[in-house]
Design brief:
By secondary structure, the protein is mainly beta. It has 2 helices and 37 strands.
């Protein structure tokens, strides 16, 4: 249940793009710019008890980084410096991995049962939802030491932070609530009561609305200005994933029936897009949503028309998908490994084999 309930995405992917060559703004500083090299973009893939880095230039898998097993949640800091993954080393832990060295750091052991991870947009704080202790642990990413606790409802299973870094939201599966908290002080607000158990949260890039997927086939919008839950939106089945376009205009909700587009201005659902549902990733330009499904296909959807394109076959049940910040390549994980897809042509590349299959994936900014 954990891998389904705690899958969390950072929706402001476009904001992660970094210049390839710092200082290359005028002929006067060209020599200094040429002396620098662009950071190699790396994809990190969760495969059982390890995280496997993939060089996206060569599409070669590097040496796996062991996590001690029981790994099912992973997040990357927006600045691309650290990957955090849950593991097991003498007990439940969260392991920081330096993307500069691909070496694991000292395990963070504050949580009894880590169930979800999120990082603030300024990359200063990691939040660990602890399903057993009913709180969220704040960890300084500079020191990887505990910096505070946020009391929550029962059995928190998802946590997300608004892109403006003002407010965090915690989905509490046990008592059917969402806990808002102030990021600056880690102070919880009044619980937002729902009628169904929340399982995931995705927040619009403009920070105005949090969309909460619940177990009963609906999505509940919460206005962040008031922390009021609005009318539930029927999407036909339990939400597998929620992704939002960079302009915050449309939320795409994947379920077993297909994909439902929702206008964030009106919170009205559009016509169901009847394709196999699964993990969703949207290109940084917002033009295409890619849906990776258990059927072994990835279906592109043009966001201007909400019409699906020709399915792209990846050879095995697709588990997750992520797109590079330059918008050129989508990486799809499956039980066989990782398949790169050229976004310009929608053609799959050669399978990158990963021992034990590939689950969640995150990618460093360019």
């Amino acid at each position: 249940m954990h891998s389904q309930l705690t899958r969390i995405r950072l929706v402001a992917a476009a904001a992660l793009a970094l210049p390839a060559l710092a200082g290359a703004t005028s002929p006067g500083n060209a020599p200094a710019a040429q002396a620098r090299t662009a950071r190699v973009v790396t994809a990190y893939v969760l495969n059982g008890g390890a995280v496997t880095p993939i060089n996206t230039v060569t599409n070669k898998a590097l040496n796996p980084i062991p996590t001690g097993g029981s790994s099912f949640i992973m997040v990357i800091t927006p600045n691309g410096k650290t990957v955090y993954v849950n593991g097991f080393s003498g007990g439940p832990t969260v392991i920081p991995i330096s993307t500069a060295t691909n070496k694991p750091g000292t395990a963070i052991v504050a949580a009894r049962n880590p169930s979800a991870l999120a990082v603030t947009p300024h990359s200063k704080t990691l939040y660990i939802a602890d399903q057993d202790s009913n709180d969220v642990i704040a960890v300084s990413t500079a020191t990887n030491q505990t910096a505070g606790f946020v009391p929550t409802g029962e059995a928190p299973v998802a946590v997300a932070v608004t892109p403006n870094a003002a407010t965090g939201y915690v989905a509490n599966f046990g008592d059917l609530t969402v806990t808002p908290f102030t990021v600056a002080t880690n102070t919880p607000g009044n619980a937002i009561k729902l009628r169904r158990a929340p399982v995931r949260i995705t927040i619009t890039p403009d920070s105005k609305t949090a969309y909460v997927g619940v177990a009963a086939g609906t999505v509940i919008p919460i206005r962040t200005a008031t922390n009021k839950a609005l009318t539930p939106i029927n999407v036909g089945g339990p939400a597998v994933d929620i992704a939002i376009t960079p302009d915050s205009r449309t939320a795409y909700v994947s379920s077993s029936l297909g994909v439902t587009p929702i206008s964030t201005a009106t919170n009205k659902p559009g016509k169901l897009i009847k394709i196999p549902g699964g993990a969703i990733a949207i290109t940084p330009d917002g033009k295409t949503a890619y849906v990776a499904a258990g059927s072994g296909t990835v279906t592109p959807i043009r966001t201007a028309t909400n019409r699906p394109g020709k399915p792209i076959h990846v050879g095995a049940s697709a588990n997750d998908i992520a797109i590079t910040s330059d918008g050129k390549t989508a990486y799809v994980t499956s039980n066989l490994g990782v398949t790169p897809i050229n976004i310009a042509t929608n053609k799959p590349g050669k399978l990158i084999k990963v021992a034990g299959g590939a689950g969640l994936i995150v990618i460093t900014p360019g």
